[in-house]
Amino acid sequence: MLKRTLLAVLDRILLALIALRYRVTVKGADVLLDGRPHLILPNHQALMDPVIVVTEIYRFVPVVPVVLDKYFNKGILKPFFRIIGGVPVTDLSMENRNPDVLREVMSGAIEALQQGQSILLYPAGQLAGQGYEKIFNKQSAWAIAGMLPENARIIGVRLSGLWGSMWSRAWVGQSPNVEWTVLKALFYMMANLVLFLPRRNVILEFADITDEALQRAKLGRNEFNLFLESYFNANGEEPVRFLKHYFYAPALKRTLPERVKGSVADIETTLLFTEEEIPEDVLRGVTAILVQDAHLEEKAITLNANLSLDLHIDSLGLVNVIMAIEERFHRKADVEIATVKTVADLCLIAMNRKMDNELLKPCRFDDRRSPVTRVTVDPDATIPALFLKTFSHYGKDPFAYDKLLGTTPRRSFLLKACVVARILKNEIDGDYVGIMLPALQSTTLLVAATYLAGKIPVMLNWTGGPKVMTHCVEHVNLRQVVTARSFYNRVADLLPQDVQNRCLFLEEKVKAATLGVKLSGLMSFLLRRAPQTRPEDVAVVLFTSGSEALPKAVELTHRNVLTDLHGSFEHIDLKTDEILLAFLPPFHSFGFTILTVLPLVTGVKTAYTPDPTDSREVLKILLHAKATVLLGTPTFLKMLLAISTGNDLKHVRLAVSGAESLHPSVLEMFVQKTGGKADLLEGYGITECSPVLTLNPRELQKTKSVGTFIKGVEGLVVVLNTNEPLPQGREGMILVRGASVFGGYRDPALVSPFVTVGSVSWYKTGDLGYIDGDGYLFITGRLKRFIKIAGEMISLPAIEEALLEKYGDPEKTVLAVVGDDKLHPPRIVLFATLPIDLAEANNYLVQSGFSNLARIHAIQQIEEIPLLGTGKTDYKRLSPQ
Predict the structure, then answer these.
(1) So what's the pLDDT on residue 95?
(2) Which of 14, 396, 485, 874 has its CB 3.0 to 4.6 Å from that of 55, i.e. a possible disulfide?
(3) What is the mean pLDDT of residues 690-705?
(4) 459 in helix, strand or coil?
């Protein structure tokens, strides 16, 4: 009796609170007064409608709602659901998949109905994604109807008026965050002085649908669900209504998000795959599972068949199918149930490939306020000083985007960097901060915070293997390596134990930050004080690629890096309204200088995506952010171009390629895919030189040339053994000098890379080439990639490039040539992923103009060519012996 009284009081309080915001009209509720137990089935427009529906029903009869456990266990909702006797049920996901969830719902509901209680159950099991209800093959309501006690009735509740509420998916394109929305609701109440909240009209229509519902239930699940949908949608699709939040504000001008998660349009939107992209044995195995576990006919199963709309598989059936795939293919699915839409998606799970159907957060790069100017960089400043100067203006300008954090404006980015800088000061011992993260805005923020903390970032390459990681960490004597837990879990197998022990997880430290740390960061943000850093101080420690030996630690100063940026953008004109697409890893010197430091010192908008080998993901971010500038290696650019179609690259105006030779086929593909409306410039750079040395000017590009030297860099070609300068057009060793060239390796035991020519010190690049009469540099090979046979210097890259003309694949690396002249006799070996005839390959080399000495001695077929994280071939893992 006491509980019933408390519930009545609580119901009156909730009705009064609801009335402040909602004007609720109830029709036909007298069907609840027949004294029988009821299975009450409403449509589901918003997170608020269960509260409205339950409180209105309680005016007539008590009701027990069936609630997803993710809402039942919310701190602010849990007391309410406990008091009214709610029943929690499992919310199916990859982390929480209970195959017995249907049995739990059925047994609990039937038992309550048999005891004379009324049950409230949402047939769709999720918020609507459009202005009408879609049940998507759910089976709980149908299953309960099939076992309904004789005296029970089925009551349909047609709700309207909440499509467009901030509690609906129409507001931000996905289910709103409960806690945050509650806080906003409380704020709006206070801002409207409680009594003046603009009110939304909500209508609840009750009807006894028992007879037809039971008749349809006998015909099957689909017939039953179609009947419910016809009842809920009897008034047609409801137009979205966005209601203003302040009584004194003008009418709210808002439109539906481009994509609403869980909507019919969202489920219909899928990437189409061809059978060539999915191995035949994988598709065959997935098809067998669908036939056995989902009881489908094999002829209905096609690669791009929609699991929900075409094959009528519900979430419970999908969980069972995914579990069967995991067992058969020995995989662990790391995706959300809602993103698995087609048979092809199931195949991707079986192949352990990432899905890319998830809802992307809005990219708001169009919201800029700053004037458009030419990109310039002060070579005499420091990175933190320029960062603070740039980010102290136009704070609302969007700066960075990635799919994890969405769009971050300058002011927010700077504030976060100041707080993280305080954390680094407290947590990091010594001057160096090891950073092990891919291309994300969090990585760029961490680099900025490192500078604000007065420390030096050390960019670590996790792809080189345990031996390389240990070498790099110990060489700089790193005590801590900053990373993220989710990323660490993916690469932990590549890390030696001593590196794992040094890992510090940034997001955990941010969550644990005390109020004092946050206030200290806020004070730094307000004061905008740059640390006492000089242009001559070390700005970063990078490591050489290590394609032929253990990586060497390279210390670059602020002057090195900023001079290189200054010279690069004196060479090519770039405006501040461009949008960079950053997918090169930040341990790559090009990725660090151009895609990490350049955005920090100029505020150029940058969209980040972490895996350069995941071309579909890169393309998706490119399209979403409308990126205009691509910077990458030919390998990564080639992969991206291979999957782009139609107008995918319509926003791209400029691409810059470096780190390896740009094959003519890539340039040809780029021109074709961009319609000739964008420039692809080849450049040349070296980690020790910050890294850019040359770039092809946009006005005049020369095929197979890496361009002319940027401002501040001088080049010289000399005789290999004597260092005697060579005239234009003559091939020799390439030397360079300038303020962007480093001062020497961190390890003093290494042989100096500098030589003196005419009393002037020059950096010896190790690359061979020549400079033509117009000042354009042509690279002919790398000294370490030459071998001597019978007194003749044989270029391994030249052989490799020739063979690529015949056997190359624009979408992937299929061959590599290695050699060793220390063997007796010297030996050249071709590694390939496809079968190649030795005689045919050597005949082709002769036909291409090579001497008989430049011949392949053996061919080894392997599954894949090993690559470094930069996209370069990892030659040290290929032995000619």
Answers:
(1) 45
(2) 14
(3) 88
(4) strand
Residue with tokens 């891919």: 438
Of the two residues 860 and 540, the one the predictor is more confident about is: 540
The CA distance from 708 to 694, in Å, is 5
H or E element: which one contains 516?
Answer: helix 515-527
pLDDT at 782 over 90: no
Q: What's the mean pLDDT in 8-21?
A: 78
Q: According to the model, what pLDDT value does residue 94 have? A: 45
Q: What is the pLDDT of residues 816-875, one digit of tens each?
A: 888 876 676 778 888 999 899 888 888 888 887 776 777 888 888 888 888 766 566 777
Nearest-10 Cα torsion for 164, 167, 171, 175 = -130
Buried b (16+ CB within 10 A) or exposed e, 241-255: bbbebeeeeeeeeee
Q: How far is CA 675 from CA 55, 639, 650, in A?
A: 61, 18, 8
> How many other CB atoms are found less than 10 A from the CB of residue 507?
12
Q: What are phi and psi of 386, to 5 degrees?
A: -70, -35
The sheet carrying 406-409 orders its strands as 406-409, 398-402, 605-608, 579-582, 629-632, 654-657, 679-685, 692-695, 708-709
- Contact between residue 733 and residue 765 where contact means Cβ atoms under 8 Å apart: yes
Average pLDDT on 351-357 reads: 63
Residue keyed to tokens 């750079």: 685
Determine the average pLDDT of the residues in 101-110.
Answer: 74
- The first and second tokens of residue 709, run together, are 């030297």
Position 328 scores a pLDDT of 87
Strands (E), 679-834: 679-685, 692-695, 708-709, 713-718, 732-738, 754-757, 760-771, 777-782, 786-789, 792-795, 815-820, 827-832
Better pLDDT: 783 or 614: 614
Q: Are strands 398-402 and 200-208 parallel, antiparallel or unpaired?
A: unpaired
3-state secondary structure of 664: helix
Of all residues in the chain, the percent with pLDDT exceeding 70 is 89
Adjacent-strand bridge partners of 401: 407, 607
The chain-wide mean pLDDT, for the chain, equals: 84
Question: Which helix (H) or strand (E) element contains residue 520?
Answer: helix 515-527
For residue 868, what are its two tokens? Answer: 């470094």
Tokens 């390596």 — which residue? Answer: 481
Tokens of 240: 């979205």
* pLDDT for position 579: 92
Of the chain, the percentage scoring pLDDT greater than 90 comes to: 28
pLDDT of residue 4: 60
3-state secondary structure of 604: coil
Q: What is residue 227's predicted lDDT score, i.e. its pLDDT?
A: 94
| Cβ atoms of 586 and 459 closer than 8 Å | yes
- Does residue 176 have a pLDDT over 50? yes
Cα separation, 245 vs 198, in Å, equals 6
Q: CA-CA distance, 418 to 507, in Å (whole number)?
A: 15
Give the type of residue at 863: E
What's the CA gap between 484 and 489, in Å, rounded?
Answer: 9
DSSP 179-207: HHHHHHHHHHHHHTTTTT---EEEEEEEE
- Which H or E run includes 608? strand 605-608
Q: Is the peptide bond before 825 cis (omega within 30 degrees of 0)?
A: yes
* b/e sequence 543-561, b meaning 16+ C-beta within 10 Å: bbbbbeeebbbbbbbbbbb
Assess whether pLDDT exceeds 90 at residue 713.
Answer: yes
58-88: string of b/e by CB count within 10 Å (b at 16+)?
beebbbbbbbeeebbeeeebeebbeebebbb
Residue 117 near residue 62 (C-beta atoms within 8 A): yes
* Mean pLDDT within 663-674: 80
Of 499, 318, 504, 508, the closest CA to residue 429 belongs to 504
